[in-house]
From TrEMBL:
Claim: Transcription regulation is one of the keywords in the record: no
Keywords: Membrane, Translocase, Transmembrane, Transmembrane helix
Name of the protein this chain belongs to: Copper-transporting ATPase
Organism: Neopusillimonas maritima
Database matches in Pfam families: Hydrolase (PF00702)
Length: 313
């Protein structure tokens, strides 16, 4: 199971488009959203704030800022209550986003992430942000699929956006607009079916699922919380590392079995001879010097066999 933003994509999104309802111009939608997003550390928020500053818009202070992890943010700007998030958040707040649904769907089909802005519980506009897919993601996904591993995308972005990215990467199963608890439940459901689940993600909202998965895989370019929750960290955030780690793990298991075999052979031959099993027949006893040499060779064979794994990394 793989998160989208920062895992499949670069995690450095850029502002794309703003649109307002009949009461708000696009620039005002961007200014208010950027003012609110000053309190957020999410990459999408950073893209909106950066775009507003580049356009010379004057940002206002935000008060009572609150983050609905994975689905949006809210706060008070210039005495008005602002909500910025996906469709799930607006529905939870009882806000109708249908006036801009057609515009949002068109942007999502192009792979953009869409956020709706509500002012005092009324729809004000939307903003879209694009996040390019990492250059190595296509190869990484293909390698995992060729290894007969099922890939599931689970993201807080809209379903249409997620499907656009999944279509480009040939990922069949997609879950959009999921909350952190939804990712956690998805991992638990798969495990209840007897599946062995690896979860790859980079954000705070991925942490519960990373901790629950059989193998949690964090991006080294992501948050500290994600890395602390996972068992494996891809230092450079390169998903191709998953296939490499899996291949190396399989070779390590084979190597361990070989080392146990070497140790068994040395002991199976050396211990009986040292105990004098050949003495009644040949009158030969194993010198302590040979016994010490045999033990040294046993250890050396295990070490040198294990060192062969260096060529696999």
């Amino acid at each position: 199971m793989i998160d989208k933003t920062g895992t499949l994509t670069e995690g450095r999104p850029g502002f794309d488009h703003a649109a307002g309802t009949h009461d708000y111009e696009a620039t005002e939608v961007l200014r208010l959203a950027a003012s609110l997003d000053q309190g957020s550390e999410h990459p999408l928020a950073a893209a909106i704030v950066s775009a507003a500053k580049e356009q010379g818009l004057s940002l206002a202070a935000v008060q009572d800022f609150d983050s609905e992890s994975g689905i949006g943010v809210s706060g008070t700007v210039e005495g008005r209550r602002l909500i910025l998030g996906n469709t799930t958040l607006l529905q939870a707040m009882g806000i109708d986003a249908s006036p801009l649904k057609q515009t949002a769907d068109a942007l999502r089909e192009q792979g953009a992430s869409v956020m709706f802005l509500a002012v005092d519980n009324s729809l004000a506009g939307l903003l879209s942000v694009t996040d390019p897919i990492k250059p190595n993601t296509q190869e990484a996904v293909k390698n995992l699929q060729e290894a007969n591993i099922q890939i599931i995308m689970a993201t807080g972005d809209g379903l249409a956006t997620a499907k656009a990215v999944a279509s480009e990467l040939d990922i069949d199963e997609v879950h959009g607009e999921v909350k952190p608890e939804d990712k956690l439940n998805l991992v638990a459901d798969l495990q209840s079916q007897g599946r062995i689940v690896a979860m790859a993600g980079d954000g705070i909202n991925d942490a519960p699922a990373l901790a629950k998965a059989n193998v949690g895989i964090a991006m080294g370019t992501g948050t500290d919380v994600a890395m602390n929750s996972a068992q494996v960290t891809l230092v450079k955030g390169d998903l191709r590392g998953i296939a490499i780690a899996r291949s190396l793990s399989e070779k390590t298991i084979v190597n361990m079995k070989q080392n146990l075999g070497f140790a068994f052979i040395y002991n199976a031959l050396g211990v009986p001879i040292a105990a004098g099993v050949l003495y009644p027949i040949t009158g030969m006893l194993l010198s302590p010097m040979f016994a010490a040499l045999a033990m040294s060779l046993s250890s050396a064979s295990v070490v040198f066999n294990a060192l062969r794994l260096r060529r696999k990394t």
